[in-house]
Amino acid sequence: MRKSLLVSFTLSLALGGFSQNGQSKKLLGFTENSSINQLEAEAKFDSYLKADHVGQLIKEMSARPHHVGSPGGKAVAEFIFNQFKSWGYDVQMETFYVLFPTPKTRLLEMTSPTKYKAGLAEKPLAEDATSGQTKEQLPTYNCWSADGDVTGELVYVNYGLPQDYEYLKRLGIDVKGKIVIAKYGHSWRGIKPKVAQEHGAIGCIIYSDPKDDGYYRGDVYPKGAFKNEYGVQRGSVMDMPIYPGDPLTPGYGSTKDAKRIDRKDATNLLKIPVLPISYHDAEPLLRSLEGPVAPEDWNGALPFTYHIGSGKTTVHLKLEFNWDTKPINDIIAKLPGSEKPDEWVIRGNHHDAWVNGANDPLSGQAAMLEEARAISELVKTGWKPKRTLVYCAWDGEEPGLLGSTEWVEQHADELQQKAVVYINSDGNGRGFFGAEGSHALEPFINQVAKGVTDPETGISILERRRQVDIVAASKNSAMAKELMGKKTIHIGALGSGSDYSPFIQHIGIPSFNLGFGGEDPGGEYHSIYDSYDDYRRFKDPSFVYGVALAKTAGHTSMRLADAELLPFDFKSFYKTVAGYATELIASTEQMRENTAIENKLIQGKFYKNSIDTAEKLLPPTPQQEVPYLNFSSLQNELTDLEKTTNHLSEAIEKAKLDAAKEDELNQSLYKAEQKLLTANGLPRRSWYRHSIYAPGFYTGYGVKTLPGIREAIEQRNWKEAQEQIEIDANILKEFSDYLDGIAKSIQ
Q: Which residue in the list 531, 690, 691, 711 is annotated as catalytic?
């Protein structure tokens, strides 16, 4: 009785927001009557979610280190398998066999002007119960570093980005044949050794500076949440912007008998050794550097003046790895659809970690499991999804999206026929709702977010996100005014860094990445301190944001599983892509103007010298002038796409469809994203096929929109830029023709 009263009360709250000014508003994809039934089912689902269940799941799964191929990893996979089985899902464990290097030798020592041998170890803490499990922990290392035994001069390169090397060039400093030390931050970690290698460096060291993550930001662990002096960020340095997954099986599943290429032929693997260290080990190396004083924006928070290096400090770096093939175990649990079993709504979160992984990934995995458990409770009341729900717990995400990529590559043809959407989550914490994804589903996810209450403030997660966006834009009055005038949020575009990447960017499945965060400092990231003790103190102490994630992703999955008409809004997609094109054209024009001005200054010797260093900078090299690119074909196709999307929207609104026609329409709608794939992929990285979204070649996780065009312009490859404009224009024409065909088929 108490539960039914709770459900009735929750439903009344939901319907309170559902009816406004006496006019009923239906859910996207539903009729008014089915909307009421859907909200009732969601209210029941919400009533089954328990924060203490989320906390207990995090505690159980993070009890031991569970990296790829470890006993703990197998135990976590079996635990998840048994949970799904106990809840009545059709569950299987699908195993792939992947390359996974682990450290055999790690040595870093300063050989001059003084001697120092790096400890390369994190210290167990009495306040952290699992931090002392040293026999099961992976050592601090960067996965996919090359083997190497190198000695060379040490050069400090700031964050190790391309522009940092431009500054070094103006100082007359060449890193060829040298070892570089870079700070974590401002790019994905794998970009730092990639750029160092391109500039001829023979080794790369990466450390976390306390200015970015340490005592400069706040109290360090265990007193506070920030990184202590011994904390180290492990992590992959695979060149994922080339391709993710097993490096030896590019484009196809790494089954036991799969053909494997030679490791030396894997284009996403580095050729130089790379090692992450703590700021405790970085301090004596950086303190010993002489030469030019680093500019102000290169300074960290260690207690000395930062220098770039002069040849007096040399280091010896020796790394060897066990290049073993390890099994990874994906858990695939299905709840068959009652009406459309061959249409799949796929939900995923990875389960492997670098060490114990309470936050990354188990906070998201626990929320997904609690969501799946609540769904199973709902099934007991007689509810069944119309489309099949597929819950996926991925292995091998941390080394390079191994489990999800191999599964997608193995099942690509079936997925392109059946997958309606992929809904991803990863680590989760306290704070603000975040959503990235396919922009044809932006109005839909806004409606979902409007119906979920933020547990900290009592307002909707949509409104809280909207307010924080307005505050963030407060220095830009025009942008802030625009945001205040909107009642919705704009979702981000998908780059890389989690398991949605193979779905959307390789085979064109509409995708989301959902989660909460922003109020939970991340000093534990990929260290032994990513533990249950850290999580319950600093991340989400009451586990209520785990429930918020379960509600948000659960409502998303349920609505897409049960929608009569899938809620794709291609007008929203058009507006977003047109915005990308407008911004790109404007930035290209600005680039032309800036280049012309800078070249005149250089030729007139009015170039700016640095006031932050005693060393005189060499004059910058004049840049090639920016030509006038012809964007007309892209602009014309976008104009046509606007007309087509309006036409399709009107046709759908007016259509009177029987069941067969409705099924045909739905399948056409969810397969539309596949029409945005390029036949040959992006330049120099054919695995990435989406013409609108891709991880940046030099950003890693960060997205580049209209990536073929944008990156050619950024790299000043004007011939390629024009070619990519025509390629994207042709893709948008084919996409527009496809949507027009849908509209005509239902008229």
A: 690
